[in-house]
Amino acid sequence: MALMLTREGIMSRMGGYRAGARGLLRSADSTLRRELRSVRSSEIALSSFTFGVLQGRFKAKGGLTFFALPVDLLAGATFHILGLFGFTRPYSHHLHAFGDGALASFFTTTGYRVGERWAAGGSFVRGMSGIFGDAEKPIAGGASIADKELASLVRAE
Fold first, then answer.
1. Residue 70 in contact with residue 106, Cβ under 8 Å?
2. Could you read off the pLDDT tens digit of each residue along the chain, which spans 157 residues?
C-alpha cells in the first residue's frame, strides 16, 4: 500500500505517536500564524513610518503630493488596488499591509491636524472644517500650501 500524503494518511502511519504528532502539528501551525501576524505588523509599521518621514521631510512645502493628492493617501489606495489583481495574488497580503500603513500615515496626520484645530477653535466642528478642502487651509497631508510659500507669493507681488 502506498503512503497517502494526506493528514489522515500520515497520522495513521504514525501509530502510537498520534497524540504527540498532533500536538507538534498544532504547535507548528500556531507558531507560523504568530510569525505571519508579526510580519504583517512589521510591514504596516514600516510603511506608516516611511510615509510619515516623507511627509515630515516635505513639511515646508505642505507635504509630499502627487497630482495634488497626498502621496500617502494615493499610495495606500494604489497598494490596495494592486492587491486585488490576480497576478499579485501571492503577494496581496503584503500589498494590503503596506497600503494599510500608508493609509494609517495619512489618517494619523489628518487626525492630528483636526485635533490641533479643535484645540485652537474650541469645537470639533471647527476642527473638522477643511478636511475636504473647504476651508482656507486644508488639513490633509500635502493638500495645503505651506505658510512660507504663501508668504513668499504675497511678497512677490
1. yes
2. 454 556 566 656 655 565 666 666 666 666 656 666 678 888 888 899 988 888 888 877 777 888 878 889 999 999 999 999 988 888 888 888 999 999 999 998 888 888 888 888 777 777 777 665 545 555 555 445 556 665 666 665 5
* 27 belongs to a structural domain: no
Separation CA 6–CA 13 (nearest Å): 11
Domain of 127 in residue numbering reads as: 44-156
Number of domains forming the structure of the chain? 1
- Residue 85 forms part of a structural domain: yes
In a domain, 1, yes or no: no
User: What's the pTM value of the predicted model, to 2 decimals?
Assistant: 0.61
Long-range Cβ pairs for the range 9-14 (8 Å, 24+) = none
The answer to whether residue 68 is domain-embedded is: yes
